[in-house]
Amino acid sequence: MSVKALKPITPGQRGRVVNGFDAITTDKPEKSLLAPKKRSGGRNSQGKMTMRYIGGGHKKRYRIIDFKRNRHEDIAEVMSIEYDPNRSAFIALTKFDDDEKRYIVALKGLKVGDKIVSGSKKSPDTGNCMPLSDIPLGTIISCIEMRPGKGAAIARSAGSFAQLMAKDGKFVTVKMPSGETRLILSSCYATIGSVSNSDHQLTVFGKAGSRRWLGRRPRTRPVAMNPVDHPMGGGEGRASGGHPRSKNGIPAKGFRTRDKKKASNKYIIERKKK
């Protein structure tokens, strides 16, 4: 994986850094695993705008990803590594012995021809999916379930990973990508290895159009608004806007909004460092 800085032959190319896509092996997705993806433009069923700064962008089709990895004991071969417009990570097309094909989130170092398997008591090789109780301590993991059988929920974006720290009875201790340390049921499944495309964070848009292609419209700064539109709006001259806060008045920059009586608080051992 690599990134390349483009030559400044136009103002939009100056300073632009794009992904080299070295790991990608094909540009044609598997048709049987595609689904239509409707664009809302930030509007709800009544046509009212409920999310600002969304709309336009290139047409996409959704790739159906196997987050559950529920074909236990069946060996699958990696057929290709592909680009997915719906996520920052790459995806891998896998094929089982009975010719069933499934997409999974591609792991760093996963190559075409690799054999992967899901199930308990397997070897902790990259791409294998195992219960947390069977994974050795200190292993780098990703695509972690929070509830058994519900499918991967944690560490799915490009370059992200978690680490298995300890085991205690029916729970294991996992250091999350955010830095938080928490308990997860040991019967939950996780995939060995870190997620692919770690160079994603090094890319630079270079021009406004690059964001528009992704369906992201220009965002208005709150201090440029009127008081009727935002708590930080208004004032004579160039006012600072006071304490940073959201449109509905909740302070930003570290204000704790988590419920002190939330049921899952008992599973959090250590909050993330600021």
Describe the structure.
A 7-stranded antiparallel sheet has the order 9-16-10-13-14-15-17, with no helix packed on it. It is globular, with a radius of gyration of 22 Å. The mean pLDDT is 95. The chain is built from 1 helix and 17 strands. Strand 6 (91-96) and strand 7 (101-105) form a beta hairpin. It has a single domain, classed as Nucleic acid-binding proteins (OB fold (Dihydrolipoamide Acetyltransferase, E2P)). It has one helix at 208-213, and strands at 3-5, 17-19, 34-36, 61-63, 76-82, 91-96, 101-105, 115-116, 129-131, 140-142, 144-145, 152-154, 162-168, 171-175, 181-185, 189-192, 268-270. By secondary structure, it is mostly beta strands.
Mean pLDDT: 95
Instruction: Give the count of helical stretches.
Output: 1
CATH class: Mainly Beta
Q: Biggest β-sheet, characterized?
A: 7 strands, antiparallel
CATH architecture: Beta Barrel
CATH superfamily: Nucleic acid-binding proteins
Give the total of domains. Answer: 1
CATH topology: OB fold (Dihydrolipoamide Acetyltransferase, E2P)
Question: Can you count the beta strands?
Answer: 17
Q: What order do the helices and strands follow?
A: EEEEEEEEEEEEEEEEHE
Structural class determined from secondary elements: mainly beta
Q: Fraction of residues in helices?
A: under 10%
User: How widely separated are the two ends?
Assistant: 30 Å
Low-confidence parts: none
Q: Give the DSSP E fraction (strand runs of 2 or more residues).
A: 15-25%
Biggest sheet, spatial arrangement of strands? 9-16-10-13-14-15-17
What's the Cα radius of gyration?
A: 22 Å
Shape: globular
